[in-house]
Amino acid sequence: MPEPGRRRWQCRTCSAIYDEAAGLPEYGIAPGTRFEDLPEDWVCPLCGTPKSDFELLAS
Amino acid sequence: MTATRIPTELIGPAFNPATFGQRGAVHEIFRRLRREYPLAIAEVPGFDPHWIVTKHADLREITRQDRIFHSSERSKTLASQLAEQLMREYTGGAPHIFKTLVHMDEPEHTAYRQVTQAQFMPQALEPLDARIRATARRHIDRMVALGGTCDFATEVAFLYPLEIILDLIGIPRADHAKMLRLTQWLFTYADPDLCRPGASITDPAEIIKTWNVVYQEFKDYYDEVIRDRRARPREDVASLIANGKVNGCPMDERAMISYYVIASTAGHDTTSATTATAMWVLAEDPRLLARLKADPGLIAGFVEESIRWATPVQQFVRSAAEDYTLRGQRIAKGDLLYLSYVSANRDEEVFEDPYEFRPERSPNRHIGFGYGGHVCLGQHLARREMRAFWEDLLPRLQSVEMAGEGRMAESEFVCGPKSVPIRFQMN
Question: Residue B246: helix, strand or coil by DSSP?
Answer without folding.
Answer: strand
